[in-house]
Structure formats: C-alpha cells, structure tokens
Write a structure and sequence with these properties.
It is built from 5 helices and 7 strands. The protein has about 150 residues and is α+β, with helices and mostly antiparallel strands. Strands 1, 2, 3, 4 and 5 form a 5-stranded mixed β-sheet that branches. The chain has a two-stranded antiparallel sheet with strand order 6-7.
Length: about 150
C-alpha cells in the first residue's frame, strides 16, 4: 500500500476509534486497495450514518459542513478533513443529482477488505459500479470498465 494511503487510513482509523464510528470506504480508494485498474485515490471517500458523521466531527474538533455537495452530489452531513496526506471526505445520506432530480444513494452491501494485515469496511464492487454509473461522469468511464471486467 502506498504510504499516503496507509497514513490516511491510519488517521481515519484513529478518528473512528475515538468517535466509536463505523466508516465505510468508498470510491477510488477501494479500487486502489484491491489493485483494480491501477487507480490511485486522490482523496479518501467515506460513507457513514448521520450519527457517526456527527461523532467523527466532534472527535476531529470540526463543525460539519452541513448539507455539503455540488450540482452532482450532496450529503445531509459532510465533513472535509485535513490532517492526513489525503483529504478525507465523509458523507452521510448522500444523494446523486440527475435530470430526474436527486436520488438517494444507499449502499446495498458492505464488504471487508484485508490489506497489509489490516481490515477495512468498504462498499461492494457492485455498489461502486452502480454509483459510477449513476454519477455519469466522464472520469468514471475507465472505473466502470475495470469493474465490469471484475464483475463479469
């Protein structure tokens, strides 16, 4: 595991232990940890419950951003944490925007990834594939193709 990712995960683990929260890794970090497609995460995306987001904010000594997001994504609670090599984006009750409006995005399956003797809760590959498809971003086309190759 590359050092920036390892250090960022260790930071998240300490914070989650202090908050008694159960974060779920999401996005490119999951692909990187599993060695899928040669992707490298530029940040650490995490999905949690609203209660866990509030507990993580308290443990980090920050105020939640409130309903964070942009024209494609939003969360009921959003935390943007610095302090680790990779920025950690924590989202609770995420929705994806499309021409049809806002669609709540819930994980259907949470898996566990074992890397370097450590275990991490993570979104399933099928959930990631569904997210990237719903997001409809050009930058996710290669991720969808890599996941399709694995899931086929």
């Amino acid at each position: 595991m590359r050092p920036e990712l390892a250090q960022s995960l260790a930071f998240l683990e300490r914070l989650a232990d202090n908050a008694r929260a159960e974060p779920v890794l999401f996005g490119t970090a999951v692909l990187e940890l599993l060695g899928i497609g040669g992707f490298q995460a530029s940040d650490l995306d995490v999905i949690v419950s609203v209660d866990d987001a509030e507990a993580l904010a308290a443990a980090a000594g920050v105020e939640p951003d409130g309903q964070g997001g942009n024209d494609r994504f939003r969360s009921r609670v959003h935390l943007h944490l610095d302090g680790a090599p990779l920025v950690i984006d924590i989202m609770a009750e995420m929705s994806i925007g499309s021409s049809d409006g806002w669609t709540p995005y819930d994980l259907r399956e949470i898996t566990e990834i074992a890397v370097d003797g450590r275990r991490f809760r993570a979104a399933s590959l099928a959930d990631l594939r569904r997210f990237y498809s719903l997001a409809g971003r050009t930058k996710d086309i290669a991720k969808i193709a890599a996941l399709d190759a694995i899931l086929a």
